Structure formats: structure tokens, C-alpha cells
Amino acid sequence: MYETILYEVSDGVAQMTMNRPDKYNAFTGQMIAEMINALKKAGKDEAVRCIILMGAGKAFNAGQDLGDVQGADTQGAAPNHGDVLRERYNPLIMQLRNTEKPIVAAVNGVAAGAGMSIALACDLRIMSEKAYFVNAFVNIGLVPDSGGCYFLPRLVGMGKALELAMTGERISADEAYRIGLANRVCSAEQFTAEAGQLAAKLAKLPTRAIGLIKRTMHKGLDMNLAQTLEHEAYAQEIAGNTDDHREGIQAFLEKRPPVFKGV
Hints:
It is a single chain. The protein contains 10 helices and 9 strands. It is α/β, with parallel strands linked by helices. The protein has a 6-stranded mixed β-sheet, with helices on both faces. Helix 8 (207-220) packs antiparallel against helix 9 (225-239). The longest helix has 18 residues, at 81-98. The model has no long low-confidence stretch (mean pLDDT 94). Belongs to the enoyl-CoA hydratase/isomerase family. This is Enoyl-CoA hydratase-related protein.
């Protein structure tokens, strides 16, 4: 069904792999459209309880494929980067945000430019020790986009975000973990196994509650305390009526591990 990504579902986990390894998985319009379609499919599929986003080959994603943007080679008319963002990247970022299932970025290699932004837009990031981020926009005279100006300061603070965006320097996996860009770093040899284990763990948790956590925390960034308290009450009312909540209470009373179904 897809030409630029791979998509498969197994044991509650949808694995979406950006599959242009010869181009370091750089984005094209087709790839972005296919990723949005796959995210929508995963969001609607009750069998999917976690999504893991990966890159084929040596890279996670090297950013925009300049050959896919008319005029980007400076030989033609300058491309309208704003239109490219509005038509391609912004819908992808919003789909990542609005998919109320946990999304893990498994960063195996370089994540540069929009590739870094996409990783930051995911809920969790696990990195290989050999992976690294590059906020590369400034190196070609551009501004961080695809949510880069939104997620980066929220993850590392304004001062560090400005430093990373202004210098465009490489951020190693260890440094990414130290400053809060990565949730976990593991050896290159164990990377695939550990990323799979994290996704499998998330897939066994109460999916509806996780979706509500994701929604409420993001809303809380843009609301005052009183509004956040009210939204927590609203979300808790929904969560309190799920089968998984009832299972959690029953398992606690019976002193056994809960078996969540995601509903």
C-alpha cells in the first residue's frame, strides 16, 4: 500500500518505518502523506495500542529532501517554504499530536532538521548511543519548523533551546538524555530490542487513559491552573468509566497484575 514507508501491526504495536535509506529517509511530499495516512489508520485501529516510528538503514531522518522542493537548488524560483509547511509538515505534526495513543520515536541514527522536529513531536524518544540530533535549520539560513519552536523550549527550556537553534551544533545521544530530549539511550546492539520492549510495555497499558494523559498534559501547557484542574476533572470522568479502570481496581483488590484491553 505504501511506497516510502513500511507499516505493520503486531501484538498491539504499529511499527511505522520511514523507508528511503539511500536518502537517509529524507522527507518528500509522498512520504509525509503516507505517514499521515498510516497514523490515521493506527489511531482508528483498536488492535493498535502503541505506535513506534523508526528509520530504515543508518539514519532516523535527515530532514527535507531538497530535491523534492521546486527551486530549492537555487536554480529556479525560490520555493515558498511557508506553503510547504502548511501543506505537508503542519498536518503531520498535528496528526502526531491528535493521535491519542503513545507514539515512540526510535532514533537509530541522525535526526536532522525536520527529522529532529518530528522526533520531538512524538511522545517518547529512545536513542541508540550512535544517534544524534542536529537542529540544522540555521546552517542554511532558516528557522526551526515542524513544531521545532514549540517542542524544543518546552523540553529543554528557553535558554538551551535558543542555543541549540542558533548554533545548529550536533547533540549526541548522551547529551540529549542529559538535557531531556531523550527518554532513554541504549547500546547500538540492544537498540532494536529495547525499543521494541518499550513499545510492547506501552501496548499493554490502559490505552484510553494514556490518550487522555497526552491530551490533558498538552492542553495544560496552554491553560492556567483553574482551566487545567477543570480539564483534569473532565478527563478523569471519562477514564473512570472505562473497562480498563474497572479492571485496574479489580486487579488491585485481587492482588494480581491487571490485564488491560485498551478500552
